[in-house]
Amino acid sequence: MSSHAAAGTIDHHHDPSTSTGIPNKKLIMWTFLASDCMFFGALISTHLIYRLHPAPGSPSPKQIFSLELTSFSTFILLMSSLMMALAVTAIQKGNVKSMRWSLLTTIFFGAIFLGCQVYEFEEFVKLKNVTLTNSMFGTTFYTLTGTHGIHVAVGVFWLILMYVRSFQPHEAGRTFGWLFKNFLHITALVGAVLLSMFAVLGAVHTLHTGGTAGAYFASYFSMIAGFVGCVAVCIGFAQPKALSNFGEANAIDVESMGLYWHFVDIVWIVIFTAVYLIEYL
Amino acid sequence: MSAPVSTSPDHAHGHEEESKFQIYVNVAMLLAVITGVEIVGIYLPFAKWVIVTGLVILSVVKFLYVIFYFMHLRWDKPFCTILFFIGLVLSAGTVWALLAIFSVKDSLPLQT
Amino acid sequence: MDAILKSDLQVKDVATETKSSVFWRPTAQTGLISWLTTVDHKKIGFLYGIFALFFFLVGGFEALLIRLQLMTPNGTVLTAQQYNTMFTMHGTTMIFLAIMPLSAAFFNFIMPLQIGARDVAFPRLNAFSLWTFVAGAIILNLGWFMSAGAPDAGWTGYAPLTSKAYTPDHSVDMWIMGLQLLGVASIAASLNFIVTIINMRAPGMTMMRLPVFTWMTLITAFLIVLSFPFITVALVEIMMDRLFGTSFFEVSGGGMPILWQHLFWVFGHPEVYILILPAMGIISEILPTFSRKPLFGYPIVVFSGASIGFLGFSVWSHHMFTTGMGTVATAAFSLATMAIAVPTGVKIFNWIGTLWGGHISMRTPMMFALGFVWMFMIGGFSGVMHSAAPADAQQQDSYFVIAHFHYVLIGGSMFALLAGIHFWFPLMFGRKIGEFWGKLSFWVIFAGFNITFFPMHFLGLNGMPRRTFTYDGNLGWNSANYIATVGALILGVGIFIYFAVMVYTYFKGEKVGKDVWDARTLEWSLPNPPPEYNYRVIPTVHARDAFWYMKQNKEQIAKEDATHAKEEAAHGGIHMPHQSIYPFVASLGMLIAGIGISVMDNDPTPGFWGKKIGVTMIGGVVMLAGIYFWALEGNGGYHLHPENDGDESNGKKPAKH
Amino acid sequence: MDGHQSTIKVEGPVARSQLEVFYVTCWVTLVIFILVGAVLAYASIKFKARTTAEEKSIPPEQGHGNPLIEIGLIGASILALVVIAIPTLKGIWYTYDVPEDRKADTYEVTATGYQWWFKFDYPSEQIAGAGALATANELVIPAGRPVRVNLRTIDVIHSFWIPKLAGKVDMMPNRANHLWFQADQPGYYWGQCAEFCGDSHAVMRFRVIALGPKDFNDWLSQQTAPARDVAPPRVATQDAPKVQFASLRTFKQNETGHTAKYDISPLDAWKAQQFPEKGESVALIAQGKALFKEKACLSCHEVRGHGYAGISGPSLTHFGSRSTLAGALLENNTEQLHRWIHNPESVKAGNKMAKGYIDNNIKLTTEDEVALVAYLQSLK
Ligand code: HEA
Ligand code: HEA
Ligand code: CUA
Ligand SMILES: [Cu+2]
Predict the structure, then answer these.
(1) How far is it, in rounded angstroms, from Cα C502 to Cα C498?
(2) What one-character DSSP code corresponds to residue C294?
(3) Rounded to 5 degrees, what are φ and ψ at D160?
(4) C208 part of contact set with chain D, CB < 8 Å
(5) Strand order in the sheet with D187-193
(6) What residues in chain A have per-residue pLDDT under 50?
(7) In chain C, which among 164-223 make CB contacts under 8 A with chain B?
(8) A residues 244..263 contacting B (CB < 8 A)
(9) What is the pLDDT of residue B7?
(10) Residue C265 CA, ligand 1 centroid: distance in Å
(11) C377 CA from centroid of ligand 1 (Å)
(12) CB pairs under 8 A between B and C
């Protein structure tokens, strides 16, 4: 029966080793997502209830929101979902290389979304004077969208781990050296994402305040250099020396991660409508 | 809703899989368009309830497309759909009930 | 067929055979390390049980102090503050640290056996759930050893009493953090159980052939997974209020404290069904076994369990009838609550139907089970009285509620769990509790329980409010309180006998063979105690009461087993997962971070890296490290080739391929 | 079941309607309990295996259930619930607010919960320069008229419960709850905070006194008047008599704070409290009045007419006419009053007045206490 394991003939719709044919990892992910629905349900209720009864003198969201920015990040998140779906199809066909590229793009889009959120929060705090504590609107808004943001961040981190994991050698090759490299690889990738995010935010900031390119490079040089360094390290590590043991059989891992990622996307679909759009009516 | 699952591994890898790329891109485009419609929609001069209903419907459509295509519930066992919908329905129901409770007169906060 | 091998293991079969050198894969079979690193669902279940029973005694001790204080009017055993701490910790301990983990012990130990599985779907996640539960329990009880004292805001922690303004010390922080960790543990465990039940069933074990206990486990797990997120959010919000100065429940910032109650009870009501459904599952196993008849109306019992679970999400506001919700909401929740009596009643009727026409053997487990049916019925009826909102306006927060829920919690959950311990003890440890002492403990507990809690109905109707550390002597409550305290002492004696007998039996009890009770479900087909791999050959299920069918059709089963044994041997024997320390490490990290968040003072002097943030960060790093190694070490595993059934030597030989 | 807080021996229409619903639930479930219990008992006895042989005999028929019986029982349960549901619904609407035809006759008060005492405002009795009439811990209402209480709180959640008159309704921060009830006859009723509200929740009590129309009006005119002034400034305090109360003793923790007086004939006892005591010492009272200012009592307490206007504690303007003190924990008599002001913390754990003693560094000598007691008791 384990015949299909050897050759690339894994049926991704049916796992004969389970009673229902649904792989365990997929099932646990769907159950977790059902649970997460309740989690966001509670957060969204909190926000909407307080929007229903705003405290006197609370800020008007319409004046605060930037529809352009939010629409853009919504669009980005949708695209990341597309890339995630493609990554899953790729690995299901055993195409590790294509999957890696799709994962990287997903990470990229995810990072842009996070960047937009950081930018948005900063804008609200600094320019619109809405902080976590100075109004109920701020409290529930930051808590809800921040929790969603944490979900995205966890997703990005997971994507990074999965990407790095796709270079994992066979058992015999797993030495302390590999463990260390693995760790460095992850750190470099996380570093690249963070540094690029802040470098870009810095660029936006410079543009806003009318600074010059020179000024930008002067003040953000270390970030940009760090980013380049991280990318270089990543490229260095991305040479699969030994044969990786990541393949079609791991499709289920990528798939459950994908489910999580898409779920974060649909939560945003709800938030976009219920938190942002409704306010404009 | 969900196609019966074939037990033959070969079939699963057949032409149906090949076209998934196309499907995904189409869905993504559709989602982008709907989002655009939503954004435009809020500026239309209709009664508020019309727009709200419209927005809710459009979001639900988006929602369903993502879960049925990107999350491939459409191709999975129906059980996954049921499982997720238990959480979804309970969550939606609870949110609705909470909002309803907080909308009645007795729930008006006492601001002094 | 071959349902037990996991897909990714098949693929990595070769890889998993050689033990990787980078990760520590302990193999100790005894000693502390073996317990800390175990992934065996039976050992984990046993640990859950031990912790739960310990906390049951702690909670009981607290209850006795409560009762002693109230024995006479103007009692002086405890001060007001100590008393408030006592009932808060009593309620929290009993619910989250006694009944829930005791149920979890049975889920872990019994459920995989009942469905013919060799383990749960994610053994290491299971270990993580256990240790995170322990971490939560530690944080919850830390207050006893601190100057802040243990939490004292009631097990419901109503805002704004829990806000910084009214409880400035850390006691409430510990309560919040403890519950938060317990929530993580419960959700993780439940996800695991759900996947296990749905995906790890032996061939032929269709959903409608699942033993009822397994069904109730499944429904309970769903309830946990779906209700805990609400309290998680509520706790996050109150914690933000306390740590960051937000105003979710802070009136001065426009907050509405009533929101806390909604969020809490959306969780809280399903929670009480989380406490009772496993109990009902146990009862549904015991009654048929001792009546020697299948459960009456199995599909209806299952379905009613599911509808109790589902309806349980639509009634939360019956705890808030007095909060002024307005007529329509009150009426809606009142009616929805009543509706739950129907599916619950169905279960009672079916249990009686099961007895009807049976050959009832009155063994100790059966006594507890029948006691359950009686006591739960009384508790349910007082529940229905509560559900009539106008009547509840007089009963809410009075001793009538105390009577109601102790009838359903002790007369219900606790009786069933005590019955379950008696029932499965022979399977777990191969020894049986003596009938005389078992029955004696039953009668003492039964009498003590009723003497304690029946008078409380009258106390409640006579206007005695709950959560009061003292009362005046002129209100007509003296004798009932006195009786209740005497009852509690009797109850304590009964519990003492029960546990003493259990400990005695563990060491010296009568040894028994397989299947002492002539039972009906699969777990009884195992030798006792069950070997670590559970089933030498994964059984094939042909009927609802699978083992009963096996006993009736011995030849057929023997033949099947023989063929399956060969097939399995051809696949390399029984696959067993490696032990792992990393789930424990991850939980340890959560414990440290939890302590950082809840009990460390925030000293902002040295800038950002204060004590609080420092400890929290250390915990976070330990946790991440645990998860990281956990993810990288892989499932791993080795193979076993047991000789024959009943082979207790557990001869473990690494497979040679 | 006929204690002061009985929900069974009720004395008003709201509590009565709640009791009726309770009786319905009680009877319905009792009948079901007897029926189901009888069958259960019969089955356990009838089908019990009496010998080991019987236990081991051929198993009984392995029947699996009977849909008809099940559906029948489900139907019967639903029917039983309908019987409960109808009075429940009626009760919900009836108890929610004063019936339409009684609205005009309704008397309105506002009750505010404090940790751990109640304040009562009478919006319809405005006093020039002092706002609405305010009193504490004893709610005096007209008997035979519906009373609508606005429920407010300034700190945590409390709950307002007079078992004999009406079920409880919570006092929620940021929420405008209300409750109505009516006392059929003049009487004296026990009330209790019914929502856990911190350390001394157990002793957060109050009383309700229902009076006939004339008594009620008398009471109102007495209360709206400024505090009684026994000691005109010129009767100065050169030699205040050194009075010693026989009762100056230390009380033990949780010691009873009441006498049987109010169990026997509470309303009469309350009425007797309305009149100045005989043998008041004018000098002592004058001394107490001065001390009230000196010792900073005035920073929290109001004595209208004496120039004291603190607001964080109960109004003491007519304190002497109240039958209880400290959240109705203690009977208002010399002994108990002394016990209270001597060391509030030992009487009521965590209470805000004890904190006030520390914050304001209030230290009282026995003489001070004696004088203050005399003064407070004179405030009829
Ligand atoms: C194991 C736990 C458990 C269970 C199973 C139940 C079961 C029920 N509970 Fe209980 N409840 C608690 C634990 C539980 N409860 C706790 C802990 C609290 C207090 C929390 C706190 O404030 O601290 C509480 C409080 C509580 C309240 C709030 C009281 C208040 O604070 O004012 C209410 C109100 O409606 C209620 C109702 C019910 C009902 C209707 C059921 C029903 O499910 C019961 C159904 C069962 C039967 C009815 C008996 C059998 C049926 C028949 C024989 C059929 C025929 C019967 C009829 C047609 C009537 N419960
Ligand atoms: C499953 C849950 C559960 C269980 C089993 C119990 C068990 C008991 N409970 Fe409790 N109880 C609650 C859940 C439970 N309770 C909850 C949720 C509350 C509400 C809390 C709140 O208001 O916030 C409550 C509140 C509560 C009160 C009301 C307090 C108040 O409102 O002021 C009272 C009063 O009598 C009480 C009594 C008892 C008694 C006598 C037992 C007995 O059954 C206990 C029997 C056990 C023993 C007697 C132990 C015997 C052990 C020994 C003798 C050895 C001791 C040794 C060591 C510790 C080493 N409980
Ligand atoms: Cu106020 Cu309890
Ligand atoms: Cu409930």
Answers:
(1) 6
(2) P
(3) -105, 115
(4) no
(5) D138-142, D205-211, D187-193, D158-162, D166-171
(6) 1-8
(7) 198, 222
(8) 258-259, 262-263
(9) 41
(10) 13
(11) 10
(12) 35
> In whole angstroms, what is the distance from residue D196 CA to residue C396 CA?
12
| C364 and C433 Cβ atoms separated by less than 8 Å | yes
Q: Does the pLDDT value for residue C604 go beyond 90? A: no
What pairs with residue A149 in β-bridges?
A: none
Contact between C246 and A24 using a beta-carbon 8 Å cutoff: no
In order, the DSSP letters of A145-170 are HHHHHHHHHHHHHHHHHHHHHTT-B-
User: Which pLDDT value is given to residue D82?
Assistant: 95
**C237 CA from centroid of ligand 2 (Å):** 29
Bridge-based pairing of strands D147-153 and D177-181 is antiparallel
Quote the CA–CA distance of B103 and A51 in Å, as a whole number.
11
Query: Residue A264's domain is classified under what CATH number?
Result: 1.20.120.80
Give the Cα separation of C407 and C401 in Å (integer). 10
Q: Write the CB contacts of D292 (distance below 8 Å, at least 6 apart in sequence).
A: D298, D301, D303, D306, D308, D372, D375
Closest C-alpha residue for ligand 1 atom 46: C380
DSSP class per residue in C322-370? GG---HHHHHHHHHHHHHTHHHHHHHHHHHHHHHTTS-B---HHHHHHH
**Cβ contact A19–C199 (<8 Å):** yes
Looking at domain D1-50+67-225, does it have CATH number 2.40.37.10? no
The rounded Cα A224 to chain-centroid distance in angstroms is 22
Q: Which atom of ligand 1 is nearest to the CA of C381?
A: 48
pLDDT tens figures, C456-472: 999 999 999 999 999 99
Residue in C269, C173, C193, C187 with CA at minimum distance from that of residue C228: C187
Domain-by-domain residue ranges, chain C? 3-603+640-656
Compute the distance from residue D110 Cα to the ligand 3 centre, in Å.
17
Question: How many domains is chain A built from?
Answer: 1
Q: Nearest Cα to D5, choosing from A78, B43, C480?
A: C480
C-beta of C276 in contact with ligand 1 (< 6 A): yes
What is the residue range of A29's domain?
A: 18-166+246-280
Between CA C564 and CA A19, with CA C514 as vertex, the angle to 5 degrees is 35
Does residue C160 surpass a pLDDT of 60?
A: yes
Confidence of residue D57 (pLDDT cuts 50, 70, 90): confident
In this prediction, residues D244-258 reach a mean pLDDT of 74
Pick the CATH number of D233-378 from 3.30.70.360, 1.20.1250.20, 3.30.70.3340, 1.10.760.10: 1.10.760.10
Question: What ranges do the domains of chain D cover?
Answer: 1-50+67-225, 233-378
Question: What is the residue whose two structure tokens read 């149920």?
Answer: C103
Q: Encode pLDDT of C277-293 as tens digits.
A: 999 999 999 999 999 88
**Whole-prediction pTM:** 0.93
Specify the CATH number of the domain C3-603+640-656: 1.20.210.10
**Residues of chain C found within 8 Å of residue A175, distances taken between Cβ atoms:** 21-22
Q: How confident is the model at residue C529 (pLDDT cuts 50, 70, 90)?
A: confident
**Nearest neighbour of A24 by CB, restricted to C13, C121, C226:** C121
- Domain assignment present for A171: no
For ligand 1, whether the C-beta of C344 sits within 6 Å is yes
CB contact under 8 A, B111 and D175: no
Ligand positioned closest to the Cα atom of D113: 3
Please report which helix (H) or strand (E) contains residue A72, including its range.
helix A67-92
Categorize the per-residue pLDDT at B5 as very low, low, confident or very high, splitting at 50, 70 and 90: very low
ipTM rounded to 2 decimals: 0.93
Q: Of A43, A83, A148, A81, which Cα lies nearest the Cα of B35?
A: A81
Distance CA D173, CA D177 (A): 10
Among A56-70, D23-37, D295-309, which range has the highest average pLDDT? D23-37
